[in-house]
Amino acid sequence: MPETVCLALTGASGMPYGIRLLECLLAAGCRVQLLYSQAAQIVARQEMDLELPSRPAEVAALLRERYSALPGRLEVYGREEWFAPVASGSNPPDAMVICPCSMGTLAAIAQGLADKLIERAADVVLKEGRKLVLVPRETPFSAIHLENMLRLSRAGAVILPPNPGFYQRPQSVAEVVDFVVARILDQLRVPHALLRRWGEEGPAA
To answer: How many domains does the chain have?
Structure first.
């Protein structure tokens, strides 16, 4: 289980996945370094009526209160906060997840661009051999999207599109979201009880 996870929210649809993942990581005792783009603020408002302030300190205070985060467990950094730990290979997180991941962000990482802190953090994670999980929310994928994903997969990233299974017969949108979040947590080796595993009996916790 990683001690420190960098979680980035970008402007693709699918903000409920990212926010639920944040909640689960904090509940599991992980230290979370949160990054978010300007477009993510728009998507959060549109999809969840969640207002993410422009000031990272205000976002941190909002989310710490919302999820009762213990001191030191949630840090939020601005888009160009280059003194953030995630900006340097001397202090990388144990793992990073970009959820949801826009095609623009995915393309920038695939080409080695690092003009924003999110892309730079992903670049650091890849070069330092840490786990990078990308949750691209787009459909259909163009040939350019697929080529970028293949390039990143070959570089060591995990491409995890939010494709829920329905064999558990979900009864709500929240259960569909939890299915995808459970898959992300599995990649991070973070324990959870969001759903029953295949072959297990009894309800999820």
So the answer is: 1
Q: What is the pLDDT of residues 24-36, one digit of tens each?
A: 999 999 999 999 9
Within a domain: residue 68? yes
Whether pTM > 0.70 for this model: the answer is yes
Angle among Cα 129, 131, 137 to the nearest 5 degrees reads: 135
The per-residue pLDDT for 183 is 97
- Domain residues for the domain of 140 are 4-188
Percentages helix, strand, coil for the chain, rounded to the nearest 5? Answer: 40, 15, 45
Where b means 16+ CB within 10 Å and e means fewer, 124-148 reads bbbeeebbbbbbbbbeeeeeebeeb
Q: What is the pLDDT of residue 196?
A: 83
- Which residue, 101, 132, 95, is CA-closest to 10? 101
Three-state SS string over 117-146 comes to: HHHHHHHHHHHCCCEEEEEECCCCCCHHHH
Strand partners, 77: 35
pLDDT computed for residue 97 by the predictor: 98
Cα–Cα distance for residue pair 25/12, rounded to 1 Å: 21
DSSP 8-state class, residue 109: H
Does residue 205 belong to any structural domain of this protein?
no
CA dihedral 181, 95, 1, 196 (to 10 degrees): 20
pLDDT in tens, 49-74: 999 999 999 999 999 999 999 999 99
